[in-house]
Amino acid sequence: MLILLTTSLIAGATLLYLCHRHQGWLMQPLSGSWRWLGWFLVAGTLALACWVYPINTAILAWMVGLMLLWGALPFVPLIRQRQQGGEHER
């Protein structure tokens, strides 16, 4: 169950990030229908987590997961660019 919750939270948060106009992964942001799917996955993850775990634990884990993902997702293109040799190495 934990793997399902983690996967759906990662997928939902990533879809929401890719729908934003300031995302750095794609040339154009995803359309609005993908945003609805992202919100559905994120909200569904919270609902399922509240059903499986105590409510306080589920809400805290959900919020921490979203903060971690939305804090780290903007840096993924920078890491990928560095691994492909886009910048000089120190």
TrEMBL record:
TM regions (residue ranges): 37-53, 60-79
Organism of origin: Microbulbifer elongatus
Keywords carried by this UniProt record: Membrane, Transmembrane, Transmembrane helix
The protein's name: DUF3325 domain-containing protein
Source superkingdom: Bacteria
